[in-house]
Design goal:
The protein is mainly α and 382 residues long. The chain has 19 helices and two strands. The protein has two domains: 100 residues, no CATH class; 218 residues, MetI-like (MetI-like fold), CATH 1.10.3720.10. A hairpin with a 5-residue loop joins strand 1 and strand 2.
């Protein structure tokens, strides 16, 4: 029991807690300008701070620049308000003399604006809702109020909706393809069923990157699929198949199909074949038997396979990145970009946390709906 609990804690609980903490942590100003951060936390936030705060800021900026320690802080503040990086670097490199409450505004009028100091004070608190707000297309105004992002910058709402739609499309297509395949496997003799199951498992022996790259080659304008369509006279010119939603759906369904087939096969094999004879003896046609008996009994496998496919599809990165266009990228691509390119771990954590919440909501809804689709009494234990 304890090893299983330990695995769950290390593989699930700890990463979730780390992501949640990363999404709200704001340590950059405290790390780079500790004295200034302490003075800003003690400040009441009205008007401008005292001379001591101006002096601490000027001195610590100069020291941090000399130690090349302003990178993380400038990225953090510039993310919240454009132009803050240049403002910090200019002040860090200037030769300022006391009183700093006059020298800094003389260097740049923004140092005399209460909004600039209010931003610094929020950054000195150590925690921030900024990343979570940005992830849902909200922002913090200069006065601290929560406001909507401008329309041209509000991208994450559409991004989450796109990811949800793609994941649902992949799930539906995978179930439509997997159900007849699982039905056929479940009706085979034990020997042939084992062989068919092995064939279903073969794709697991090849990495996702290799399978996606294969689709990248197949769907090229000069690739085998376009060549076949031209040879058959289906089209008189190569079709644009790569870098489209079609390519994303085909490649993702191919990768995730085994996850839909195997749970269905496991459930279908447990359906008593005598039920078909009983339904026929009562005058039911094969379609009536399938619709009213077999399909309801197989729904647990459909639900399990669908949930697995959906949970894997919603976080896909490699396949959409390779075969999809700019309008087919999913949330995971932005998480990767914030993690490896812009080094904005807070935004990556916020997007990951919201993606998890959206996935959990869909899974919870599915768990509520699937049992209700099964008619009462069918397949119930005696």
């Amino acid at each position: 029991m304890m090893p299983a609990v330990l695995v769950v804690v290390l593989a699930l609980v700890v990463p979730l807690l780390v992501s949640a903490a990363t999404a709200v942590r704001d340590p950059e100003l405290r790390a780079a300008l500790p004295r200034t951060a302490a003075l800003l936390r003690a400040w009441d936030g009205h008007g401008l701070p005292e001379e001591a705060t101006f002096a601490a800021l000027a001195g610590e900026l100069r020291a941090a620049e000399a130690e090349q320690a302003l990178g993380a802080l400038s990225r953090r503040l510039n993310f919240e308000r454009s132009g803050m990086r240049g403002l910090l670097l200019r002040a860090a490199r200037a030769e300022l003399v006391a009183p700093y409450s006059m020298a800094l505004p003389a260097l740049d009028p923004r140092w005399g604006a209460p909004a600039t100091w209010a931003l610094l004070r929020r950054a000195a608190l150590g925690v921030t809702p900024l990343y979570l707000l940005r992830a849902v297309d909200l922002d913090i105004a200069a006065d601290g109020a929560v406001v909507m992002q401008p329309a041209e910058e509000a991208v994450f709402g559409r991004l989450f909706l796109r990811s949800l739609v793609i994941a649902l499309q992949v799930t539906l297509l995978a179930l439509l393809v997997a159900y007849p395949a699982a039905y056929a496997i479940a009706r085979l003799s034990p020997g042939w069923a084992r062989l068919a199951t092995v064939l279903v498992l073969v794709p697991f022996w090849v990495s996702i990157l290799v399978r996606t790259t294969a689709w990248f080659i197949l769907l090229q304008r000069e690739g085998p699929l376009n060549a076949a369509l031209l040879a058959l006279g289906v089209t008189d010119h190569p079709l644009q198949l790569i870098f489209t939603r079609f390519a994303v759906l085909v490649a993702m369904v191919h990768v995730l199909l085994p996850f839909a087939i195997l749970p269905m096969v496991g459930v279908m094999k447990r359906i008593d074949p005598r039920l078909a004879r009983a339904a026929a003896s009562l005058g039911a046609t094969r379609w009536q038997h399938f619709r009213r008996v077999y399909l309801p009994l197989s729904l647990p496998g459909v639900g399990a396979g669908g949930l697995i496919v959906f949970m894997l599809a919603i976080g896909f990165y490699i396949t959409p990145a390779l075969v999809g266009g700019n309008t087919d990228q999913m949330v995971s691509a932005f998480i990767a970009d914030y993690t490896t390119t812009t080094l904005n771990w807070g935004m990556a954590g916020a997007l990951a946390l919201l993606l998890l919440a959206m996935t959990a909501a869909v899974v919870a809804l599915a768990l509520l709906l699937v049992p209700r689709l099964r008619p009462r009494g069918i397949g119930a234990p005696p």
